[in-house]
Specification:
Elements: E1 2-5, E2 10-13, H1 15-21, H2 33-36, H3 43-53, E3 60-67, E4 73-82, E5 88-95, H4 97-111, H5 121-133, E6 155-164, H6 166-173, H7 175-194, E7 205-210, E8 213-219, H8 224-239, E9 242-244, E10 247-249, E11 252-261, H9 267-283, E12 289-291, H10 294-315, E13 319-328, E14 334-345, E15 349-351, H11 357-363, H12 366-387, E16 395-399, H13 402-407, H14 410-421, E17 428-433, H15 434-438, H16 443-454, E18 457-463, H17 470-473, E19 480-483, H18 485-488, H19 499-514, E20 518-521, H20 527-536, E21 540-541, H21 552-558
Parallel strand pairs: 11-12, 14-16, 16-17, 17-18, 18-19, 19-20, 20-21
Antiparallel strand pairs: 1-2, 1-5, 3-4, 4-5, 6-8, 6-11, 7-8, 9-10, 13-14, 13-21, 14-15
Length: 566
């Protein structure tokens, strides 16, 4: 302790203060108290100290790092408070080094993972937040990369990874072996981060975020190439087997890589991008790194937006049907139409089926959507029949997803809709993909058989692209094969004809006819194609040569009109 007058000069000091500062207590008299404990080092502390001396503040306390008399550094808590006589203040200094050391140890335990000794999730996000808040200088001189200097770039990078198949190791070999593996992985990640010649002064932060998830934070990154090199080095390092107490283990990792400007980026946005990219790496086959792609992410976000609004859109009447003619190749007459659904999305505009049918199949809304398509198409076909009673009625072909067979009573739905609309069963054709039909067994096969028995025609769509089992084909209740357009494109004209494609189509047509099936060729775009298909013996054509998918009013104009060019 020391007594200090109102001018800040030491009046008296005890022996403990002298010993702490490495001098005699008497030698401290007449010295400025602020100099003894460095109170003038910053303006805020100096102002508070002066306020106590002037009697405008009752007490002031701060923490200072001092040099002990024996030369070691110590942490001291400095307190300045008035004494009752009103003419002096009391300066008290307490050595709190042990307390600070304990706090540091407790913080280290709190901020580090006990298994790998790496920084944990809490410390990682603390460092990430600090890196994003740190202002970036436009340019700073720096040493060459050879001397491990770094430039402030204002950019930030992240390698976010997890181990492929780690759960299986834990389940089969136990958590003790799993923990040893995690610790060994942590050491290799730390070596990879330390080996990056572009690392800033403190090096890259390697953290375990939980489970088998790790992150390497790259502050002031030099660009995506630096992150790509780091990700590649991590994959190479982890491919080397691990020898753990007699256990030789091999492991791989999937890594999501994100690199961007720190300006305008939040920790949440960065981690969302990293998590998405890690998912892509897993989905693309694991044991690889994948760089964040804004375009791919925008597609994913659009997909999520479509998924969340698909069910309400069915109820809200946002879907419409267009129809593409199915033309008899022999005489050019329109025999039927295929119903094709379109989504008039209020945000994204008109969407073709390939933008949302897959989503509908995943979330199950295809059942409700498919029921709407079937009812609308049958009602329209029946309306054409009523409006043109003297003309040969058009059949309507409707695509059916496998999930509609599994998740709903398709037979009951079809029977109910035909009864409701008054459409004859033979004027309805249901199209299923080749892989779906060929894999049919049990309930799906029973449903197809019941529909066929009802008089509904079953067609295999995109035939020739799946895993055709021709022996099985003869036992299916199928009446139509729709040849995939890839075959038809092979002979658009005589000059550039593909003889192999023509032979394949001819063989398929002959096979179908011998099995009592009719054949429809998709993607007919030229008169040359139509001519060759007719000569081969194909029954029906569909494609832009005749018409694109159009509104029902345009189909009405074709009924009873002159035949389309055959």
């Amino acid at each position: 302790m020391a007594l200090v007058d109102r001018d800040g000069v030491v009046v008296a000091a005890n022996d403990s203060l002298g010993a702490l500062l490495g001098t005699e207590a008497g030698a401290l008299r007449e010295r400025a108290a602020a100099d003894l404990v460095d109170l003038a080092s910053d303006g805020r502390t100096w102002h508070a100290y002066r306020e106590v001396l002037r009697g405008r503040r009752s007490c002031f306390r701060c923490i200072r790092r001092l040099k002990h008399g024996d030369g070691r550094s110590l942490w001291a808590e400095v307190t300045v408070s008035p004494v009752p006589d009103g003419r002096r203040v009391l300066l008290s200094i307490a050595d709190i080094s042990d307390r600070r050391e304990l706090q540091a140890r407790l913080r280290h335990l709190q901020m580090h993972d006990p298994v790998t000794r790496l920084p944990n999730r809490t410390l990682f996000f603390e460092r990430l937040a600090a890196a994003l808040e740190e202002p970036a200088a436009p340019w700073e001189p720096h040493e060459s990369h050879e001397s491990y200097g770094y430039a402030r770039t204002g950019r930030i990078g992240l390698c976010y990874l997890d181990l492929d198949g780690f759960k299986a190791i834990n389940d089969t070999l136990g958590h003790r072996v799993g923990d040893r593996l995690l610790a060994a992985v942590a050491r290799r990640l730390t070596e990879c981060a330390a080996g990056d010649g572009h690392a800033r002064g403190g090096g890259h932060l390697v953290a375990r975020l939980g489970g088998d998830e790790f992150a390497i934070l790259v502050e002031d990154s030099t660009g995506t190439e630096q992150l790509a090199d780091l990700a590649r080095s991590v994959l190479d390092a982890l491919q080397e087997p691990f020898d753990l107490a007699g256990q030789r283990l091999s492991v791989s990792a999937s890594i999501g890589v994100v690199e961007r400007s720190g300006r305008g980026t939040t920790a949440t946005a960065l981690m969302q991008a990293a998590d998405t990219t890690l998912y892509w790496a897993k989905a693309d086959g694991k044991a690889r790194w994948t760089l964040f792609d804004p375009e791919r992410n925008a597609h994913r976000m659009t997909r999520q937006a479509l998924s969340s609004t698909l069910r309400p859109a069915v109820e809200g009447g946002e879907f419409v049907l267009e129809y593409q003619p199915l033309v008899d190749l022999a005489d050019g007459a329109v025999r039927g139409v295929e119903a094709l659904v379109r989504w008039h999305h209020p945000q994204f505009g008109p969407l073709p089926p390939n933008r949302f049918i897959g989503i509908a199949e995943e979330d199950g809304s295809i059942v409700e959507l498919g029921r709407w398509i079937l009812r609308t198409a049958c009602r329209q076909a029946r309306q054409w029949q009523k409006d043109h009673p003297r003309e040969r009625p058009l059949f309507v072909s409707v695509n059916v997803a496998v999930r509609q067979v599994w998740d709903s009573d398709l037979v009951a739905d079809v029977a109910g809709i035909l009864a409701e609309t008054g459409l004859a069963p033979h004027l309805l054709q249901l199209e299923l993909t080749e892989s779906a039909v060929m894999g049919s067994a049990g309930r799906p096969l029973q449903a197809l058989q019941a529909l066929s028995d009802m008089g509904v025609r079953i067609a295999i769509d995109d035939f020739g692209t799946g895993y055709s089992n021709l022996a099985y084909l003869s036992r299916l209740p199928v009446s139509v094969l729709k040849l995939d357009g890839s075959f038809v494109r092979g002979f658009q004209d005589e000059e550039h004809a593909n003889a192999a494609d023509e032979l394949i189509v001819e063989a398929l047509v002959q096979l179908a006819h011998r099995l009592g099936l009719t054949v429809t060729a998709e993607c007919v775009e030229t008169a040359g194609q139509a001519s060759r298909l007719r000569r081969i013996g194909c029954d029906t054509g569909q494609g832009w040569l005749y018409s694109r998918a159009v509104a029902p009013e345009r189909i009405t104009e074709l009924i009873g009109a002159e035949p389309l060019p055959a």
